[in-house]
Amino acid sequence: MTSNVSQNYPYSSESENERASRVERSLAANEGLRDKVRAESIGLPDESRWWVWKCRVKGCTGLLHTAGYARTAHAVYTVCDTCGQTALR
Ligand SMILES: [Zn+2]
Question: What pTM does this model have?
């Protein structure tokens, strides 16, 4: 993860409602993603604002939305709203 530090700055932020609907849309659109997120992350505390990051998958213009906290690392577990990739931030 250390090599990614300079690219970890958030792109934007969103409300809890926006976050929840973007994540839900991505989970619904990508088969198996919901199970993967459930297996690899834990739930989120109540917050009113969340950071948003740019997806770093080549050719993808999507944004990464917070889906939970990673089980195995002190990191935010995010899903892309376009390609469905998951990433730690
Ligand atoms: Zn993406």
Answer: 0.86
